[in-house]
Structure formats: structure tokens, C-alpha cells
Amino acid sequence: MSELELRQTTVDAEAAHDRESSRRGPRVGTVVAGAFVILLLTAAAFPALVATQDPNAISATEAFQPPSAAHWFGTDESGRDVYSRVVAGTGTSLLIGVTATAIGLALGLLLGVLASFGGRVVDFGVGRLVEVLFAFPGLLLALLVIVVAGPGPVTATIAVGLSTAPGYARIIRGQLVSIRSSQYVEAARVLGRPPRRILTAHLLPNALLPLVVLATLGIGQAIVWAAALSYLGLGAQPPAAEWGAMLSAGRTYLQTAWWMTVFPGLAIVGTTIATTVLGRALARRERGAR
Amino acid sequence: MTANDADPVLELEQLRVAFGREEVVRGVSLAIAPGECVAIVGESGSGKSVTARSLLGMAGEGARVEAQTLRLAGRDLRGATEREWRGVRGGQAGLVLQDALVALDPLRPIGREIGDALRIHDRMPRAERRARTLEVLADVGMPDPATAVRRRSGELSGGLRQRALIASALALDPPLLIADEPTTALDATVQARVLELLAEVRGRGTAVLLISHDLAVVARLADRVLVMREGRVIEQGTVDEVLRAPREPYTRALIAAVPAEVPRGAPLSRPADSDANATAAQTPTAADRAASREGSPGSTPLLALDGVVKTFPVRGGGRFTAVDDVSLDVHRGETVGLVGESGSGKTTLARLALALTAPDRGAVTLDGEPWSALDEHARRPRRPRIGAIYQDALSSFDPLWSVGRILADAAGGAPGKGAGTGHPSRAATARRVAELLDRVGLAGAVAGREPLTLSGGQRQRVAIARALAAAPELLVCDEPVSALDVTIQAQILDLLDELQRERGLAMLFISHDLGVVRHMADRVAVMQAGRIVESGPAERVFAAPGHPYTARLVADAPRLVH
Question: Which regions are flagged for Basic and acidic residues bias (chain A) (predicted)?
Fold first, then answer.
């Protein structure tokens, strides 16, 4: 009895807290994360505005400079400015993260729609396929794709996208199945709406909205995976300025020139945290709206 | 207990509860003697539930609770710590909530739920605990307690679940039982049994505080009644005083809103009290009603179910017959009420009428033409002829859509509107949405709102507006007012009644509430276990039931005056 009541009270308290925080506006963390993402987007769109130097300008005399006023993040073995290279890599990393997530979502959507509308046999087939894909650790699946298709940024992106697809597929299928039996879909049927219209007006928007939140969280993960693949030499190839590739190049000099790995590493960590924080803020908002 | 029998179990003076700046309980005083039942009635938002919860130290997070006296079983509970409150809950006061399905842990056998209360409070040894659990289950009339202890709440019927919940509240034999809408989620028959059980509990000397919006329930159980509105007690006295000779206009409006006591066609809501619905319908004469009902037995019925059977596969083989050889006609301009307990097949029948599910045998025809036999493609253009209104309006709206979009979508699909021109213009749609909102008594500004932000009554008005948008000839209403307070229920019923007269609508009106059906229906059909056991003119069926099941339903239906 009291246990239940306590639970109820906790729920009330959480709801009250949510109401409270929405009245106060967005949290500090959300604002900071939002500002960071805006900075990242600016760096990706207009690297020349944010960078201080040409990311690929080689200067033998300035190799291995520690961070200073001239070189904020120091220089690498060829004397290239690490800060400008991190900036130049932003576009590549974000593009890989977003594209990979989009591929995963699109594939997941295709599989999910097939499973929930294709009848029992298709549902069974897709279900087993997704389970098999799930059985492989995500990165291993990505490696498998690269072994078949060869290394490079494009294959790495596709590989990461493919390996995230099973998770999305499963969620989309579940969403569609539950929404299809919902009363508002029934209400639309009673009004005489054709299935195509119900799919586009009700099913897809309601199934995809929670996924937008999930996808925001997924972008961070995709960036880490793409960086990992580059680090292993399977993604973007040097001398391309990509965060994972920069980590890989810097690891030989970790003892003497820590800045070559620490700053690209921080960029990856910062981006992942910022997108995750934003994703969670979105999730909170969406929960509050229901 | 330390308290003398003559002392009140609960003494409360000037209780005030505030959340932030908003005061929701403004000075409530009450006292309950052992073996007495005091009821608090009022609409949702009147502060009745918060009052009850404050007595258990559960007013809610951020609540400021003040009282001049708060004494339970002789103990002053003002400023009690959370730890002390835990001793009070279950020990001095048990709580029974509306929905036992939510209140009991679905994963734990009910024996454990009850045993826990004993273990936590009394540190009773295991064998004794088991014996007490069985005893208390037997006390609440649980059949076969020895088997019941091992079952989970989900495996029990609604009535038995409510009994299990009452048993858990009574396990420690508390001097006070607080029952917050204990029967609102139950069928009339089950409700009657649970009320009898609560009367028994009271008879054993337990004080009962009953919280309800249902005056009929209160009339059946309570000794004294407090009417609450906006955090204040506006009227109190014995049940007879308050229900037979109410002094306050608000109390009179509450009583007038109980549909069983009002003849067919007469409005339930008082214009003075219905802020949303100012248009008072005048009572039509019997001749008016007869004239408006064109459907004479000889003409083609608008909707006809003919020997319809619907079965569902049951886990572990076999089939469950939800609707068993049912024939039912609905004529133009007529309301046919369908009553029965939950599980009797009412909702399946509604789905058959709406052609959302196909009958196994028999046929449904619309206006003499095939309906259930059509394939969905051919049926789709005719679907706007039948509208549907559900119990839970909110879940029938797309959560991403605003009220305006819901209505615009429904209006845009109506045949004959802007005929031949394809989509009506934006301005025309906006005008139509405003018209629809106005017709159901809502302000035009509601179009911009999300359904979630509306009250229950407003949501049901939007649902009605949506159903009207497609200009239907028949409305299928499945428990349309079951989730609403009695005064709001009255307004919605009046609105449906008015619209029916205005547009000559036919209605299939499904409810477990006999009073509501009696007020709304011209003819009724009584359903039990998938079959229609009796049908006929509403007045005749309710006044002189021809089938024992109908007689039992009528006898169990709570009434204001016995």
C-alpha cells in the first residue's frame, strides 16, 4: 500500500519537477550544448571563418610545437596547425555522423514498414534478419562491410549506417504495430480515410517523432564509430583532416606531442556529449508534451 | 486502540492545502465516528481527493498542509514526519483507490501484497501472516481465498480485484478506511457488491471516508455528506437532508444532473451552472418526439444487424463467442440504448456496426444495402455516414494534431462539401472549423489548442464536433460519458440529445450506466454474454423488466432515492 503510494508520489514529484523546469526555460547544460553544436555547425559550413590557418600548410620548421598563442592546439609532425585541422575535420566528422545515422534510419524505416505491413511471413523474415544482425557487435558488422567493400570514408559511413539499422528497424516496427491498433487510427478509418493517407498522416509522423530524439543520440555514437574506423585506418585516409585519422596519426608521438591526439579526442568527446545532451533535452520535451 | 469508542476516529479542523500560491483546499473541517460513513462529493478539481490524501500525509510534492486539528485515532498528526506517516498508512487508515488494476502490483500475487502490509507494520510471523491474509480475504468475500492468494491482480476480474485491494487496506484492521472513488471503474452489478462490502466493513465499526462524484453511490452508503466546491465545503448534513432538500444551487445542480431521475428529452444541465453550454434546450412534448421519429417499424431501418455472430480465438485453442446471434435495428432519428456489463460484447457489437471487424456469420446492412459484406474499398466512400464517439476521446485524437487540424481534416473529407472543386479553400475550412466548435459549445480559440490541454468535457465536445463534421446519419457512441463527472456528463448528454433532434440523427448508444441509457434511449437492448436477452421501449424495459438479468441490473443500479 504505502509502497504504491510512494511510487505515486515520486511520479507526481517528477511531473512537478518537469513542469517546474519547463517554466524556468531550458537548462544550463542544454544551452551550453546548443551553443557548442552551433559552433560545430559554423566550423563545418565555413571552416575558413573559424580556422586560423590553412589546415594542410606544411612547415618543417614548425613541427611539434606545443599549444601557444600562434598555434592554439600546437602543430603536428609536418608543422600543420592542429586547431585548424580539427576545425577542418568537423565537416567530415559531422557529415559522416549525420549521413550514417540517416542511412541507418532509412534502412530501419524500410525494414520496419516491411515487417509491420508485409504480413506474417515477411514480419518473421525481417525479425530473424534483425536478430542475426543484432548478434554481431555493431563495430564488427561495420568491419565486415569494409572488408567486403574496401576502406574509405564513404564505405565507413555506409558501414556505420548499416550496423545501426537493426536497432532502428526494431523500434520502428514496434511503434508502427502499436500505432496501427490505436484509437486515432481507428477513428481515421471510421472517417473513411484510405490506408495510404493513414500511413502518411498518422503512422509515419507518430512513429518517427520519438526516433528523431533517438537519432540525435545516435549521431554522437556514429561519429565515435566512424572515428574508430578511421583510427584503424579503415575510414578517412591521411592526410585528410578527420578526427579519427588525426588520432591515429598522433598516437606514434603520444609521449612527446600529446596535443596531437588530445585535441581531436576532445572534439569527438565534446561533439558526442553535446548531441547527446540535446537529444535528451528533446526527449524530455517530447515526454512533457504527451 | 487507545481511543474510546465514543471519540471520533478522525477529527479535522480548518484543513488548508496549497500548491505554490494556489490554495486547493480552503478550510475543511470534518469528524468521523467509529462505524460511520462520511462522504465528500464534488467535481474533479473540487479538492476532495487532496483532502483525503492529506489525511495520509500524501497531499503531493510541494504541498503546504495546515490544519488547526488533525487527529487520527487520538493521535495528533500535524507536522508528522514521513516515517510517522508510514506507520499511519495501513495501520491507522487504509486507502482504497479507484482502479485496483493500477493500485496492485501486476507481477505479485495478491497474497503477497496483503502479507507485505502485515510484515512491514506488525512484523508478524509467517504462519500468522498467512492465516490473517486468508482471514481478511474471506472477510471481503473473496471466493476460495486459499487459491486467490496465489493469483496476480491481472488474473482477477474487476470486482474481485477491488475486493483484494480493500482486503489489503483492511489487513491491519485500521480504524479508518478512506475510499477514493472505489466503484467508479466498475459495472453496476459489481459496484453494488462492492458497496455492500463497504457497508459491512462499516458495520464492523470501521469509520469510512468515501470520496465520490457519484451521488447515487453516496446515497447508498453514507450517513453524512459534505459537498465540496473550489476547496470549500459548501453544504453538509445527513444524506437525506442533502439529497432530498439541498439548500445550495450547486448541490441542486449536481442532483439534477443524475440522468436516471430525469425523463427522456428533458435537459440535465442547468443553464446557470453550465458555463460552456449556455443554450438551454426546451423540453419537447411527447408529440414532438414522436414526430421527429420517422422510423416506424415498417420502414427500412438505417442500420440493421441480422443474426450476427463474432468469435475470437482463445489462447490454448477454441474460440470465444463475443457476439452470439444478435439482431438489432436502428431507425432514423431514433436512439437505441445498449446496456450490459463489461465483457458482455457491447464494444464488439459497436465495432461490427462500424464495420471495423467482420462478422463470422450474419450480416450488417446500412439503409437496406450491404455494409459488412462490402469490401473495404467499396465501403470507404460510405463510411462518413456513420460516426463514432468513444469513451476516451483523447486517445482517439492523433497526439501530434491540434484541435483545428483534427476538425479541418474531418470536415475536408466530408462528401458534398465544396462538391466537385476538390479541396475547399483555407478560409472556408477555417470557417467550417469555427462553426463546428461553436455548435458543440466551444470557443473558436480552442482550434489552436492541443487536445491534451483540454478538460475531459471539452475533449468529448471536440470528438462530437469531429463526428458531426462528416455529416453522419448515425452516431455510434461507446460509453461516451463514462469517464466524465456527473455535471459534465449532463452537459454532454444534453448536447447529444440536442444534436440528435436538430439533425434527425440515429444513435446507437452504448453504456453500462442504466441511468444514462434510460435518459437517452427510445428503445433499449440488454446484452449478456454476447446475446441480447431483452429489448423494447426504454420505459417498459426499465419499469417492468421481462428477463431476470435485466431485473438484476435494474435492482443493482444505484439510485438517489430508494
Answer: 14-23
